Each structure stands twice: as structure tokens, then as C-alpha cells.
Amino acid sequence: MLDADFFRRWMTAAAASVDREAERLTALDSAIGDADHGSNLQRGFTAVTAALEKEAPDSPGAVLTLAGRQLISTVGGASGPLYGTLLRRTGKALGDAAEVGEEQLAAALREGVDGVMKLGGAAPGDKTMIDALVPAVDALGSGFAAARTAAEEGALATTPLQARKGRASYLGERSIGHQDPGATSSALLIAALADTAEADGE
Amino acid sequence: MRMLINVPETVVADALRGLADAHPELNVDVDNRVIVRRDAPVAGQVALISGGGSGHEPLHGGFVGPGMLSAACPGEVFTSPVPDQMARAAAAVDSGAGVLFIVKNYTGDVLNFDMAAELAEDEGIQVAKVLVNDDVAVTDSLYTAGRRGTGATLFVEKIAGAAAAEGQPLERVEAVGRQVNENSRSFGVALSACTTPAKGSPTFDLPDGELELGIGIHGEPGRERRPMMTSGEIADFAVNAVLEDMPPRSPVLVLVNGMGATPLLELYGFNAEVQRVLRERGVPVARTLVGNYVTSLDMAGASVTLCQADEELLRLWDAPVNTPALRWGM
After folding, report:
1. Other CB atoms closer than 10 Å to residue A142's CB: what's the count?
2. Contact A78/B111, CB-based, under 8 Å?
3. What residues does B218 pair with on adjacent strands?
4. Which residues of B are designated catalytic?
5. What mean pLDDT comes out for the span B173-188?
6. pLDDT band at B45, cuts 50/70/90?
7. Which of A33, A43, A63, A96 could make an SS bond with A29 (beta carbons 3.0 to 4.6 A apart)?
């Protein structure tokens, strides 16, 4: 079973990973966007870890809801509402249980991803974060490691696609041949989840 | 890179402090990033709130004041503001007559303003929204996020602002704003990429002797690249792209807008070419505005925006306005 501390460590691991990869995310974003995806997420996750240190929520749902709210209030751009909604919806779906199982988490994450698709209007194949998140959630039934692989493969698979959502879509065919920064950061978030589970010996 | 800054992290806050020093008639909340006209809320008037990423100055903070915006919410450079900013602005400027959000069609701006509308409505504030999407360089399609909002934002903010100043009700001010957007089209070209303070190098690579056609205002590359053209050739291309999409039925307002690093000497010369093309195409010009209004940091280049103006829109355009960047009639 996964408790509030597990989710806090997941968020901390995600923040560390965003810190490490910020330059790469920004470089990917400069090809088809405006070169700030890394720094924007960095600002958001720094606020998330600060808030979690201050408040220490006592349930998995509360950890993710708080994290989502922080992202909405600090990131801006499309990433703020989209990542914020992902975590908030997932958190709300988990309710106020003190511990949750892996199946419960998978179901809640699916609700979170559905929330993102509804808010952004994106579908798989549009060259967005959805292209990493949907395969990850589909694979979560087979374990955290499978989810990580699926997310990473999903992010890589955005390269040949033409963007149909977000700023990259304004480039039309010129968006082809570049990996999507949003799908890449989504893969980082899922990898942080898998790392946290592995550190636990799950 | 040489920039007149302290450190990249404080660029927006530093600019806001300077804006406050230069314009005591504005109330600038540097910490929460909200710029409000000092006499707000104005009783009986709909309040106009706009915002978006920083780096487009004077848009939007430079357009706060009587006859135009009630408040502006600047985000990080090229990043939309967060919902808390718009909700805070709405609470500060709402007189009970409601607020109108003016939003440029970028996914981030749309999502954050939508979330802000929910927050404001929770507080009992009536909210309406006008989405600006005037850029003909982006092909409309069911499968894209739609056209970008660029130069027409200035027309919408000025004309809807005049309607609000007259005391027109929220649904009328909203309708006027939508009409202006529907009547406006833009096309932009870049002669150089821009450099964001955070990245410190050009956002895309544009070799000497080439230009980008169909750029937006966020340093993203355009739709296509061509060998350098003359001012006259660029005017032909840009104006024809606009007119192809919107055959004019009435006299037009013309905005010849610099992207940040093109001097007025060049912009006025470009305007002469734009006016020539319009004459050749038989399009009467009602009013013309030339200058840097919707910029993209230090990008060189320009955009052309045309708005078909009936007598009512023209009357509202001519109405008094008093803001840091746009001022006439008072």
C-alpha cells in the first residue's frame, strides 16, 4: 500500500528530475515553442516541494491535490493548468484514504489524464503530453516499470508527428521531426513515480 | 547577448517597478503582478481585464487607463499569467457591472483565463470573455488550436474599452469586442529571431539574408522562410495575405506594428508601402497607427493588422483614451 509519504517522495523526485532536465526540456521547447518549458515547470515544482514541506498533508489524495493547486498558481502557460489538473483530478479521485493500492492509483491517474484531455481538448496523436500519459496509464496495470517504459516510448514517438494542439501547432508541418517537450516532461513525472516505487522495493 | 537587465529572474518584477515609478496614475502590485487603474472600480462601468506573457510591451500594461483596460495581468516572459492574478484583478476592478476578459488565442492564456473566470464567478463577479484570433498565417482547421491572437488585441481593447467607458452593459461591451475581432486580420514577418532573457540566445536560427513569414509574437518560427525581400515586397505579401482572407467591405483601421527591434524610420517606410498596396487594391483607410504596440522582445520585423470599421466602431476608436502607451482626445 502507498501512503502520503510515498506521494510526497514522488513529488520530491519529480521536482528533482525537472531540475536536472530543465535545460533539455527548454531546448526541446525552443525548436517548436518558446523555449521556457523547463524553467516554467521548475518554478512550479519548486513551489510544490515548498508547500509540501510547510503543510505535510496526511493522505495521498491531499498531497496530489495540494501539488496540483500549486502548479496552477505558479506555472502559467498551458503547462500550469494541464499538469495542475492532472494532479488535482488524480488526488480528488483518491479521496481521503490514508493508504491506496496500485490499482486504485492506476484508476485515479486515468481520471486525471481524462481531465487533462477534456481541458486541453487533445487526443492521442496530437503531439502533446497525452501521448506519454495515456500509454503510461494503460501500462500501469503491469507495474510501475512498464508504465515508465510506455511513457518514454510515447514521448519518443511524438517526434514524427505534426502538432495539432498548443503553440507548436502554429508551425504546421514544421513541427514534424521534433520531440514534444510536454510529452517529455510527462515521461519524467511517470519515471519519478517508478523510481519512488523501486526505492521502496515495490 | 547584451541586455539592460539585472538578472533574468527579476526581469518582469523590475519592469513593473519601473512602470509604477513612471505612472503614478496606475496601481502596480509587483508581488501579485496586477496593474490596475488607480480610480478603479469605476461605478456603473464594465471593467476590462487582459493579460498574457510579458515581452509584448506595451501590451497589456501600457494600455491600462481611462478609455481602455481596467487591469492587466503580466505573466512570465512569453508565459500566460496564472488564474490567481486575473481573479485578484477582477476583485479589484469590478464595480458590480461585471468584467470582460480579453484573451489572445494561445492555449495557455485560454486555460488560465477560463480557470480565473470560475474563481471570479465563485466570488459573485459576472464574467464575459472575448477571444482574439486574428492571425491569418495560421490555417484554420478542426485539428488545430485555431488562429493566434496578435495585433487585433489592441483594436479590441481600445474599442471595447470605449464602449465600457460610455457605460454600455456587459453583453454590449462583449458584443463590440467580438465584432472587432471578427472584423480584424493580421500577418507578421520577422527579420530576426528574439532572445528571451532566460535562454540568452535567439529562439530560432535565421541566417542573414533570409526572413520568416507568418510569425507570431512568441519568438516561435513562422510558417515559411524566404530570401530577404524589400519593404514594398513584404507589404504586398502581408496585405494581400490579410485581404485574401478578409475582402474589405468598409474603410479599415490600419495598425503597422513593430516587433520590438525595428526602428520607426523603417516602420514608417513600411507603412508607406502598406498604404500603397491598400490604394492599389481600392481599400479606403479610415485611421492608421504606426509604432511598437504588440512586440516580441527584440525581434526585428513588423505585422500588419486591418480592422473593417463601420461608423460605430470608428466613433469608439476615436473616443478619448489615456494610458501610458495610447493617448488621445483627453
Report:
1. 11
2. yes
3. none
4. 56, 218
5. 98
6. very high
7. A33
